Amino acid sequence: MSPSAYVVLAAILFTLGSVGVLVRRNAIVMFMSVEMMLNACNLAFVAFARMNGNLDGQVVAFFVMVVAAAEVVVGLAIIVTIFRTRRSASVDEPNLLKY
Amino acid sequence: MSGVLSASVVADTFTLPTIDYGALAPVLIVAAAAVIGVLVEAFAPRGARRPLQLVLVFGSLIAAFVAVVMHAGIRQLDGGGAVAIDGPGLVLQGAVLLISIVGAMLMAERMVDPAGDAFAARASTLPGSEDERQFSSRGFLQTEIWPLMLFAVTGMLLFPIANDLLLLFVALEVMSLPLYLLVGMARRRRLLSQEAALKYFILGSFSSAFFLFGSALLYGYSGSIKFGKIAEAIAGNPGQNMLILVGVGMVAVGLLFKIGAAPFHQWTPDVYQGAPTPVTAFMAAAVKVAAFGAILRVFYVIFGGLRWDWQPMLWVIAILTMLIGAIVAVTQTDVKRMLAYSSIAQAGFILLGVIAANPAGLRGAIFYLVAYAFTTLGTFAVVTLVRDSTGEATHLSKWAGLAKTSPLTATVFAIFLLSLAGIPLTSGFIGKFAVFTAAIEAGAMPLVIVALFASLIAAFVYGRVIVLMFFADPPADPPAVVVPSAFTTLAIAISVAVTVVLGIIPQPFLTLLEQAGVFIR
């Protein structure tokens, strides 16, 4: 199977993730969609590493995993704080800041 | 086919990059201080934490600045080409460090709020709960802000010198993640603060995902993540290619988000308003300098050969940014929110320096960034001083007649506003002049005309606040202007000094920028 198919798959996953961020209203689900976008990037990097015949892309994928893990820590801390305050993880409810 | 490919992957042996640790000293000093700061949080007794953290923060920032100054004149690629230490990079690093020192002074302030500093005694307590009341009545202070701030500074120091896409992404996240948390830690109006943190976090991670996918496309196109190699690949294959064009666009989205350029500016007003004001001051100034540093490097070094493809895109973004920032600022009734929209407009003006894509544009943009950063630090520092019983009195109606209660505060704020408006004898004027002339030199006359129009609208916004402060009657319950400790006083004094000195004698700094030269390729 040619590696370019994986790039197409990565693009599809990335699009699904970004649609998820735009249409879903639960902070946790939006956050999961962002993680899916990051993983789509990883897939693209690894596929391109295979196509280009060097290791840079694979190294990037490892770093992205670490960064994504750090992002989970920070993100869940913020979302849990909001949830405890408002008893809801919907992003429609915090609406004090506008215009 | 696949056999050949996998053989070539295996044959590609891993060579250890040589790293000149001395040249990376500024970053390493701040990163080490941040790690030590975490240990201090874990092991030091509560009472000793704040003094220890302050020594660490100011000591490491000053030491890093000394290291930057000692590196003046270095021009080299380091870490196997992952880091480029050159004139503009060092100037931007120095600027980030000075801004962070002033920002740290504002964050260290304990006198303006009777309850303590600007940060929640414990961010995990529920707003309005008994826990929260207990923690703040005992006078506990949140000292975890200090390591977080130092980690953010580490990212900001790496951001303008990163010379490959991986390091750029890591620096972006190291800079952003601590800021997401700092934004949510305000002592007062905690619901606003938490909401701002959530918005900043979701939109920020969304935009960094775009940045990362764009990097993947650039890597797929060129076979390398090094800026120099990508530029070579672009120069070697003239003609348009979807991979590279989409890649440029997506990388630009990630970077433009950080500077708050329209249409990626939606987070800016909410975050600037919700965040604790010292954090707003710090991030408004330092993030903009670091992110513009990265934008300048990326567009000058990697995308220089694609100028005709990205310039139209940046034209549209710059025009939108300037006009949206200036026009929406007119309708604002909250000081912090108005300053946020003004910062969007300012980002649009600085983008002119990026679009010019010539050495004069680079110099102008950096000058403007430094001028803007110190003025912004000063404006938000003044905002922390005007208070009523609920905390900062940020509604503009409360600022009416401020000159009658505190002429000094009103005058200082007016100086900052005049600089933001670009009135001669202030740093803002020189910055605008430098950026606009560079853009005209590059043939972007229509853009400069739009910019002048937008500055006119912005000048009306600032002028209105000055008139309000000096010529309107104070409200029935006027806010008090508190007397701060030496920290905020010094921060405001430095900001005023930089604003005025860069406006009257800009030549030494312009000469420094000229000596700094251009980015290493």
TrEMBL record, chain A:
UniProt keyword annotations, A-Z: Membrane, NAD, Translocase, Transmembrane, Transmembrane helix, Transport
A GO cellular component entry from the record: NADH dehydrogenase complex
Keyword hit for Transport: yes
Main location per the UniProt record: membrane
Pfam families in the record: Oxidored_q2
Signal peptide stretch: none
Subcellular location field: Membrane
Membrane topology reported for the UniProt record: Multi-pass membrane protein
GO MF, any single term: oxidoreductase activity, acting on NAD(P)H
One example of a Gene Ontology biological process annotation: ATP synthesis coupled electron transport
Residues annotated as transmembrane: 6-23, 28-48, 60-83
Protein family per UniProt: Belongs to the complex I subunit 4L family.
Name this polypeptide is given: Unannotated protein
Lineage, broadest ranks: unclassified sequences, metagenomes, ecological metagenomes
